[in-house]
Records
---
Amino acid sequence: MAEITTLHYLVVAAALFVLGVIGVLTRRNVVIVLMSIELILNAVNLNLLAFSRMWGNLHGQLFAIFIIVDAAAEAAVGLGILIAFFRNKETINVDEIDLLKW
Amino acid sequence: MFFLNHIYLIPLFPAFGAAMMFFFGRRLQKATVSAVCVGVVAVAFLFACFTVVEYTHFAHGTGQPFEKIVYTWLGSGDGHLNFAKRDGTLAAFNADAGFLLDPLSSIWLLFVTGVGMLIHIYSVGYMAHEGGYYRFFGYMNLFMFSMLTLILANNYILLFVGWEGVGLCSYLLIGFYFHRKSATDAANKAFIVNRIGDAGFILGALTLAWFFGSFRFIDINELARHGNFALGDVHILTIAALLLFVGACGKSAQIPLYVWLPDAMEGPTPVSALIHAATMVTAGVYMVARSNAVFVLAPTAMKTVAIIGALTAVFAASIGLVQNDIKRVLAYSTVSQLGYMFLALGVGAFAAGVFHVFTHAFFKALLFLGSGSVIHAMSGEQDMRNMGDLRGRIPTTYKTMLIATLAIMGIPPLAGFFSKDEILWQAYRSAEGSFPYLWLIGFGTALMTAFYMARLIFLTFYGKPRMSHEVEHHIHESPKSMTGPLVVLAICSICAGWLGVPASLGGTNAFGKFLEPVFARDAVATASVAPAEPQEPAGEEHRGLEWTLMLLSVGAAVVGGGWAYGYYANAGKDYPEPIAVKAPPVYNVLYNKYFVDEAYDYAFTGRRKIGKIRLGAMGAGEASSWFDAKIIDGTVNDVGWVTRAIATLSTWWDKWIIDGLGVNGPAILARMISYPARLLEWGLVQWYALVMVAGLLGFGVYYIWK
């Protein structure tokens, strides 16, 4: 059995990142899109922690905490936008959110 | 001095006759018409005789001209009509109704009125059965008026009035039988060809007036005889003299303007006798003789006159050898004899030329009147091929015509011998040592003249009768009114020559002496220019040569007559023409008059075409007109077309390039850009996110691969 190296962590993080991106790009439900954004952020967190362990300092973990806080705030704001939108349009289909256009 | 002072009446007598015919002629009886018209000419003749007698007393042999100015016709005393002469000074334009009588015009006066009177008497008989009797005599009188004005004029302008008048009367009289197209064509031809000569004449007269400052003959002769002339002056005088000679060619039927005279035989025979034998055609000779002072100063012009005269003489004589119409032979004979006269004038023998005019008037008028008598006897037949053996049947006509023929052949002691031989002798002398070409041409012409005139006599009067039987039964001698003038003219043809018997034959040459003052030569010239040699009578040492030449010409006449006797004296039906037998192409050319009329037709009348292209001078006109219409106007039209094309191009450019690209282009461009640009603001969030991811991937790929 191989050693669990930093690379493994990075690959997992990358995979999660890609899944998150695919979710953002392709899901119709706005809530799912927000959840995918969270997934992207968490993938980034994982990446940072892996590098923190590799370098042996705490810079990565520190930044990860910043990102968690940031993600939380962002989720709150995002949900707030969603509710405001729902009140207007009675739908949570992202394809129908197209008022800001030509 | 009564007659001299009233000299202006001489032309007015026939003018009165013409006026009477014009106003009253239609209502008058034939007898009245004859009496009036013949009477006025007879009165004119008598008046002229008295006038000339008075003149000889007036002049006492000095030849001083008598001038009578009746009124100022063209001219103004106060300088309105001044013109600049050659040397820059001003001269007054003056042409009076003035009459001049000097030896030259007195000779012309006498034979014009005399022969005219005889021909008028003859016409009474000849035209007795014709329609338009009063019209004929009116025109004949008008002609006499014009001719007398021409002869008696004292300046070129009044001479030109007479000149044009005789041309007009010639037209009216040739076209007398106007129902015949050939006659009207001939009349047109005569007038038009004459007109060409008139243009030359008027230019020559104006040049002389510009050079000398006056139109009067006395002034011009005075200045020409006593002036100093440099080389440049001589050139101008040569041009003036040649232009005057062009006029003389037209009027007196020389090459190249002779073509009207043979066709003029369409007119009645008295017309041919008067106008085209004795009087009108001599007007050119008169004018050149009158201008002798100018011609003498221009030796080149004199040479031209002599050469053209000689060429015309031989040319016309050659055509006359083969013609079959009796009047046509006489017409070409007239052209040929006129050539002799100009030959004489050209070599400086003015008196000899005038003498030949004088004698020729008698025998040529006699020949024409005699031929008229023959035609009258033959009930209108003019073709000699259908005549023959008339000798015994119309004896008076035969005898008089024989006398005239002997005269024209130059058999002594008849008139033609003296005048013709004088001309030939002067032509021989003028060669001055080099080969006497002009004499040789004259000699050849004399031989041909003898031949064709003898041919005429033999075919008409000898041989076997070749006419149809009805015509033969009607042959009769002409009435006394016709034969009378024939006899008178015959007497004149015999005696007229005796007035000019040269010194070499023991005579006094009264004729030449009478004319001497007119042709006196005392012009002073600078060393670079010498006038033509004066022609004094030959000295003793030349007598032998003169007699030799005389014998040669008489011999030529006899040989020519004898040849003709051999061929034609016994001519029966379908007699052979010797020239046609020996040299058919020569006969063809001569019979067709060297095809000159055809050549003129091609060159000038514009009736001939090759395909669609018209020939000759009119063709050149048509070509110019085509050039103007197609090429010049075509160019103008093409310029217009080019302008329209440029405008079209310009429109296209404006519409498609300027408006299209310039103005609409940015708009279209903007719209084209806007389509992708819209995608930036689609409004679909997930699209935005996709674009971001794509960009991120792009960066990543770029940096990894770098």
Note: Residues 523-535 of chain B have pLDDT under 50 and may be disordered.
---
Amino acid sequence: MVPITTLHYLVVAAALFVLGTIGVLTRRNVVIVLMSIELILNAVNLNLVAFSRMWGNLHGQIFAIFIVVDAAAEAAVGLGILIAFFRNRETTNVDEIDLLKW
Amino acid sequence: MFLNHIYLIPLFPAFGAAMMFFFGRRLQKATVNAVCVGAVVVAFLFACFTVVDYNHFAHGTGQPFEKIVYTWLGSGDGHLNFIKRDGTPSAFNADAGFLLDPLSAIWLLFVTGVGMLIHIYSTGYMAHEGGYYRFFGYLNLFMFSMLTLILANNYILMFVGWEGVGLCSYLLIGFYFHRKSASDAANKAFIVNRIGDAGFLLGAFTLVWYLGSFRFTDINLLVRSGHYLIGDHILTAAALLLFLGACGKSAQLPLYIWLPDAMEGPTPVSALIHAATMVTAGVYMVARSNAVFVLAPTAMKTVAIVGALTAIFAASIGLVQNDIKRVLAYSTVSQLGYMFLALGVGAFAAGVFHVFTHAFFKALLFLGSGSVIHAMSGEQDMRHMGDLRGRIPITYKTMFIGMLAIAGIPGFAGFFSKDEILWQAWTSEGGAYRALWFVGFATALMTAFYMGRLIFLTFFGKPRMSPEAEHHVHESPKSMTVPLVVLAICSVGAGWLGLPHSLGGTNRFEKFLDPVFAKEAHVMQAEEPKQLAAGQKEEERTDPMEYGLMGLSVLAAVVGLGAAYRSYASAGKDYPEPIAVAAPPLYTVLYNKWFVDEGYDYIFTGRRKVGDVRLGVLGAGEASAWFDSKIVDGAVNDVGWVTRAVGTLSTWWDKWIIDGLCVNGPANFARMLSYPARLFEWGLMQWYALVMVAGLIGFTVYYVWK
């Protein structure tokens, strides 16, 4: 059996990050995009915690708490924007949110 | 005393013409007669006294009398100076001057004399015609011009008279201008004359450019000084140009065409202008310029040949014409040819003598034909005459005398003058012109024939006229017959003035003219001292050849008259023309006047086209019109086309280059640039996210590799 080093945690975090990125880039539904953004943020959290274990201090974990708070606020605001938009346009398709264009 | 007022002679008829111009319409016929005929009678008497005065003045030396009344052109201050050919400056001087010498004295006498007789005749002939005062006004104007021409002392004043007689010829030929044929004939006369006038002017100007003066006395002095060689090119050119003028005025070969048509005018006009006076102006001018001509043997040869050819050519046409006046017209052209033949071979005095005698008998013949026409109530075609000799005896007798004179029967005027010409043609320059003697001989034969034909058809034979015309045949009034008788007497008497040595006379005529022509003998003798110069009567014994030739010409006259008698003296209703019977194609050619008028229409006037092309003056007009419409207008159209093409080009440039490239180009370029720029503001959120990720990966890769 291979011992689980920090690297493994980093790889998992990277994988989650990539998945989240791909979700942001490719999903049609705005809610799913927001969920993907959460996934990215959580991947970063995981990265930070892994580094906290590696270095043996709590810096990483404290930062992770901050990010959680930030993620929650961001999700709230995002959903608020989504609902405002939905009331206007009756759609959740991200392709149709293109009013801010040239 | 009369001599000093020689300028009055032309002014008498000028006064008559002016009176007719201003007051003629209101005057009675008798007043017109008194003024106009009186003017010419006074002129004639004055001329007689003047010539008598001149004889006292000259004492037989023939010294010319010159009187300059005033300077007309040119002056002392020299503003009309010019450079002569040899480079020296000379003053242009043409004065209103009058010259009287034996040559102009002769012309003066017969012009005023015959003119006077014709004026008297016209009072009878024109009595029933309209425009009586206009006729006499023109006639007087003509006398004025002719007298100016004769008495002028320089070429320019002579040209004034030259043009004046041409103008009066036009006015009088076209007297019945309501008839198109008459006005056409007048136009033809004037236009053909004008061609000659161009030659006259060019000749005169050549002489002044070469010699420096227009005056005859100056020119004679210069030319006879021995300074100029025989055959001088410029003098030859001047002589030929002057002769061209003479051809136009005196109806010689290329320019004779106006004279037969000029018979459209009233008969006295034909008699005066086209028989006795105007047509002799050319002969006068050449005789006056004899000093120049003698130095130009080429020109003399040309004159002689043209004269001889004209003589025989016109005589051939006269053989078959049916209009009595036309026969006489061609006869005039033919006799003028004789005169130029004489001048050309150097027999100037003989030529002048023939002018003198011809004036009388031709005027007689024309006036007589006028009398015949008057008797026939206007009929001019000889085919409708006949057997008139008993009915109009005076006319018949006088015309018979005229015919004998022109045919050259001994004793009558024409014999002496024509014979002199033929003898000079035979002997001149050692026989160089013998061929022309034969031409003259043949012409004499033809002259006798056609004149006999004229007389026999008119007066002999059976009457061929309509019964009403026959009823009206009457002798003309005294005003017409008396001039006829006077002219008949002159036709006999005038000849004896020139009785040659061979027949026992002293040839006073020629002696009178010696001083005018004999001086050139010095020049000719310098070249060929062995031969006799023309005009000098040195020999006292006559060449027996002269009698032989004389006999031959009399034989020709008799044979011609005899043949005419046989053919025409008993001509009935449809008499046959011997030439038509013997050689019909020749008759057609002669009857149609050798188709010369038609030929001129093809070549010179362009009234008939040669195939598809129009030559001549009208052809030039057509060519000019074609040039103008095709080439000039084409050029204009082409310029317009070019302008439009440039406009199109400009449009293209503006639309594609300026607008497309310069204006729209940058705009499109900016638009092209905008496409990528748009990507920054798509509005697609996920695209923005992708760009962010791409940038992030880029940075990461960059830093990993660094």
Note: Residues 59-89 of chain A form the longest helix (31 residues).
